[in-house]
UniProtKB/TrEMBL annotation, chains A, B:
InterPro entries: Tscrpt_reg_Rrf2, WH-like_DNA-bd_sf, WH_DNA-bd_sf. Gene3D superfamilies: Winged helix-like DNA-binding domain superfamily/Winged helix DNA-binding domain. GO terms for molecular function: DNA-binding transcription factor activity. Pfam families: Rrf2. One of its GO terms (cellular component) is cytosol. It comes from Shinella kummerowiae. This is Rrf2 family transcriptional regulator. It comes from the Bacteria. PANTHER family: TRANSCRIPTIONAL REGULATOR-RELATED, WINGED HELIX-TURN-HELIX TRANSCRIPTIONAL REGULATOR, RRF2 FAMILY.
Amino acid sequence: MILKSQVEWALHCCTILAGLPNGRYLSTKALAEFHGVPKEYLSKALQSLSQAKLVDSTLGPSGGYRLSRPAAEISFLDVVEAVEGKERTFVCNNIRTNNPCRPKSYCEAGPCAIARIMWEADEAWRASLRSVTLAALIQTLEKEIPVTLWQSSSEWVLNRAG
Amino acid sequence: MILKSQVEWALHCCTILAGLPNGRYLSTKALAEFHGVPKEYLSKALQSLSQAKLVDSTLGPSGGYRLSRPAAEISFLDVVEAVEGKERTFVCNNIRTNNPCRPKSYCEAGPCAIARIMWEADEAWRASLRSVTLAALIQTLEKEIPVTLWQSSSEWVLNRAG
DNA sequence: GAGTACTTACTCGGATAGACGCTGTCCGAGTTACACAGG
DNA sequence: CCTGTGTAACTCGGACAGCGTCTATCCGAGTAAGTACTC
């Protein structure tokens, strides 16, 4: 059970978009070039973000994507769920109903105890992702990344932002 | 990103094995019949449990599996990791190194900030699974399952235990 | 009655095949900004 | 200078193929318990 690489890409792209000046857009091409990933496949991830209403898109030249809300209001969970979907990581097929001793009249009350425990862990994972916003990520990045690299990167991005 | 159905099967099988009297074995065939799943494929899940040293196996007639430790010392995480592996659910491909502005001399210090956050959530998931033992599961099951069904099931199992 | 060979039932591992999702590429339709030509 | 047309750049969506993983099945090798058979 491993998350798609699109999740990684989407998170990195959101980071870049969060650093964009208000109202500016950045194209898929620029994002793909910056991260060294295939443009056409990256566009799938961005489409997922767009469908989830996390980013706005514009057509035409100097078009592209921008965050639809402030970075402080977008959590990691938002991005992960946009790409991976909101379904739980554990699905219960209710195999307990195959128990040969089970009377046909018997009707289960509530979900399987095993499923409940698995879903609880799933919720813990989501809660952890929900607690971190893009703004918080950028704050730690600003501390970790050398100033020169940070500046040259935002300059690179700005030159391509429409 | 969805867990294999083998995880569900393994958890249910461990529950049955945990209810077995000390030293008794239960065969793959009986476990498969009880849960209504294909015997040969279920055996893969049980082999994973065996490789992870969660269960002991015996060959020959009246052979099968039993827990290798008390149910109170086996957590959900043990079972899940036995089947799914211990790898983290998020893999960092370090695409930050593709940044065109990055000087070649520059060497990253420590893992990517995005990966760290994803791994923290992964750890929260695992911690939640680690906190629940098979013994605790059985305790809740005893409360929820009707006494008659509980008894007839353990009788069914005992008749097939070697 | 004691010892030995045989049968049976099971685990374990490898080989195999289909279904499905992920990865990655390609192309066409639609949209917008900009440049350019004509009045 | 203004208007209209054309072009370029981009998003979006669908179609498609390759690949690995998950699901599922089958078979053979090895092992242990029980049974029959021999001395």
